[in-house]
């Protein structure tokens, strides 16, 4: 039996069915092993689809045999395949490395519950990506959000609780805004299928509710995606979450919201609303630019390593939104490529933080002085990923920054401003990454110099795999770039 | 727009007002439980919007009966959608309250300003 046509459904069903089964695996270690196997299996499904998609195929699937627009349709195109690889890859690698770190932060008897919630987040995120149905996206969004609140609050740090409460409030407001928008589009078009919406909006006589819906959906998803200035939940949630959860969520959670935002906007609205292109640009571009500048500036003065990296995520989300706000093929390619490359760089950095957390319970920069002597391999991996975050040539981050710069050059009168912002913010990134490097390598240790004592082997190995991937995809970027350019063409195909 | 037309949108006015009350409560209150109550009101407003739009004048429950021709049905889809959204809302509220309980255990208070002062 050929399973290939069923891959989009399997992608969601496997982690979703595995999540309750994990609960039954009570003996220690088994729950982790089960969850990791499921995540790796999902990763292979995503890779299989990505390879097929990069050869020009695409996956459509009618759930239960009901054809769209009556049934719920699943669809995986180039953009979806790229995001699926990011999400499942982040889940597989972070779960693989997680065991020792989670053992030290979560009580043994709660671990099966914890891994089960982890798989639910994975199922929710991949569900969002494969759905071609607006309401289905909402349901999966809430599955992944609710489960991720549980994961963030699961750690021993009590400050995680107020942070997660804020995240819950803001996340729910975002999702509800999205729901209002979808309701208004449904009211005018009578359909929930994204492709069907696109073809029917053109025939709507009173366009005002659609305009309001576009506003609600954009704001709601921007809240979920932590677009500046709706990002205030993000730095604290990332700082106080268990370390491995930060790795997983920082690499993929906000990216999926960005994916929905871009997809919804380009597929449903861009082609049908006159002047929407300009509104979309004029709304998102200033926010993206402000986000890049303000978040980078804040990160330069931040004292806690995890919050520094979390704040820098807000700036990186700004780059991704900036590319999308050009509404050009070059801009969208840069956006999609930066989704992938930022996941690599930030995932690697947070993995290195999880390593550091073995020897240093307090992750303020002042306490980490001289850590390179204690943990040389961890510190080196952090430098590699840091270079990728800045965008130094030879690393993955350079590719997408370069694409973004060349896309910005084509923006006519304001090109100089855009280029200036990108260059200045890269210098700021250099400053905050340098602060980490300086602390790790050149400062005198606070305590007596310890003998070298590294993090557990698996964790260190995964960290280095990701660090080397940063270099690998910097030298050979064909795979993410081919998917990105196919994605950009598909998205713009709806506009023209 | 005449007064009658304005009144014709009664349910949508209620939706907008309830929505604003909910959002205001979430933003303005410092007590975490009150914030969650506001969040619930906010979500309920959206349920009202969906339920309102499915009503067709003179429409009944969408059940096909033998011998009855040309029956007008109300649209069942928004009701199904909102049933799901209610479940989502209940789970969000439950999780939120559970977090508030743990905040109370960890901090001894559920007032936002006191929690901020504690750290």
Task: Write a brief caption for the model.
Chain A is mainly alpha-helical. Chain A has helices spanning 7-22, 30-54, 78-105, 111-130, 134-153, 160-189, 194-201, 208-225, 234-240, 243-269, 276-300, 305-325, 329-359, 371-374, 376-390, 396-409, 415-442, 457-475, 478-493, and strands at residues 59-62, 73-76.
Describe what you observe in this structure:
The complex is a heterodimer of chains A (496) and B (119). With 496 residues, chain A is an all-alpha fold. Chain A has a domain at 294-496. Chain A has 19 helices and two strands. A two-stranded antiparallel ribbon of chain A has the order 1-2. In chain A, helix 16 (396-409) packs parallel to helix 18. The longest helix of chain A is centred in the last third of the chain and has 31 residues, at 329-359. Chain B has five helices and no strands. With 119 residues, chain B is mostly helical. Chain B has a single domain, classed as Helix Hairpins (Orthogonal Bundle), CATH 1.10.287. Chain B is elongated and about 70 Å long. Classes of the chains: A mainly alpha (496), B mainly alpha (119). The A-B interface holds A 135, 138-139, 142, 146, 149-150, 153, 158-159, 161-162, 164-165, 168-169, 172-173, 175-176, 179-180, 183, 186-187, 192 and B 19, 23, 26, 32, 35, 39, 42-43, 46, 49-50, 53, 77-78, 81, 84-85, 88, 91-92, 95-96, 99-100, 102-103, 106-107, 112, 115-116, 119.
């Amino acid at each position: 039996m050929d399973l290939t046509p069923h891959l989009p459904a399997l992608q969601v069903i496997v982690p979703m069915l595995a999540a309750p089964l994990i609960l039954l695996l009570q003996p220690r270690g088994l729950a982790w092993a089960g969850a990791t196997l499921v995540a790796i299996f999902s990763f292979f499904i995503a890779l299989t689809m990505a390879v097929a998609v990069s050869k020009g195929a695409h996956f459509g699937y009618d759930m239960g045999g009901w054809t769209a627009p009556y049934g719920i349709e699943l669809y995986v195109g180039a953009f979806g395949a790229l995001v699926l690889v990011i999400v499942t890859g982040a889940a597989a690698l972070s779960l693989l490395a997680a065991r020792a770190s989670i053992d030290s932060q979560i009580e043994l008897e709660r671990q099966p519950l914890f891994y089960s919630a982890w798989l639910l987040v994975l199922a929710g995120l991949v569900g969002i990506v494969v759905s071609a149905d607006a309401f289905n996206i909402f349901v999966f969004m809430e599955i992944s959000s609710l489960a991720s609140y549980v994961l963030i609050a699961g750690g021993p740090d009590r400050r995680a609780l107020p942070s997660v409460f804020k995240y819950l409030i803001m996340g729910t407001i975002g999702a509800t805004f999205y729901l209002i928008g979808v309701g208004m589009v449904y009211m005018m078009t009578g359909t929930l299928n994204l492709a069907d919406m696109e073809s029917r909006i053109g025939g709507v006589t009173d366009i005002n509710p659609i305009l309001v819906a576009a506003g609600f959906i954009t704001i709601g998803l921007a809240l979920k995606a932590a677009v500046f200035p709706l990002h205030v939940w993000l730095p604290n949630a990332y700082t106080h979450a268990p370390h491995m959860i930060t790795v997983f969520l920082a690499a993929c959670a906000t990216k999926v919201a960005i994916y929905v935002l871009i997809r919804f906007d380009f597929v449903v609205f861009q082609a049908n609303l006159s002047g929407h292109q300009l509104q979309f640009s004029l709304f998102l571009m200033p926010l993206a630019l402000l986000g890049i500048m303000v978040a980078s500036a804040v990160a330069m003065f931040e004292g806690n390593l995890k919050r520094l990296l979390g704040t820098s995520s807000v700036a990186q989300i700004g780059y991704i939104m900036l590319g999308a706000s050009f509404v050009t093929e070059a801009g969208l390619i840069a956006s999609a490529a930066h989704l992938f490359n930022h996941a690599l760089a930030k995932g690697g950095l947070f993995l290195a933080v999880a390593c550091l957390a073995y020897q240093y319970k307090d992750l303020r920069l002042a306490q980490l002085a001289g850590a390179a002597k204690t943990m040389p391999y961890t510190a080196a991996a952090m430098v590699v990923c840091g270079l990728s975050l800045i965008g130094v040539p030879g690393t993955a981050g350079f590719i997408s920054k370069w694409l973004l710069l060349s896309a910005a050059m084509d923006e006519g009168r304001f090109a100089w401003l855009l280029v200036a912002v990108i260059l200045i913010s890269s210098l700021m990134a250099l400053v905050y990454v340098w602060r980490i490097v300086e602390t790790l390598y050149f400062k005198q240790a606070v305590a007596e110099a310890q003998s070298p004592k590294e993090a557990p082997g698996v964790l260190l190995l995964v960290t280095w795999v990701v660090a080397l991937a940063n270099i690998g995809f910097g030298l050979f970027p064909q795979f993410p770039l081919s998917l990105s350019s196919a994605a950009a063409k598909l998205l713009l195909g709806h506009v023209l | 727009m005449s007064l009658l037309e304005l009144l014709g949108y009664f349910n949508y006015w209620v939706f907008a007002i309830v929505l604003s009350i909910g959002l205001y409560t979430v933003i303005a209150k410092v007590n975490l439980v009150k914030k969650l109550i506001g969040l619930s009101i906010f979500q309920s407003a959206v349920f009202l919007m969906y339920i309102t739009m499915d009503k067709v004048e003179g429409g009944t429950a969408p059940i096909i009966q033998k011998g009855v021709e040309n029956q007008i049905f109300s649209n069942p889809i928004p009701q199904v959608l909102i049933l799901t959204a209610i479940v989502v809302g209940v789970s969000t509220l439950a999780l939120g309250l559970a977090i508030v309980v743990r905040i109370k255990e960890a901090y001894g208070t559920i007032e936002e300003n006191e929690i901020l002062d504690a750290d």
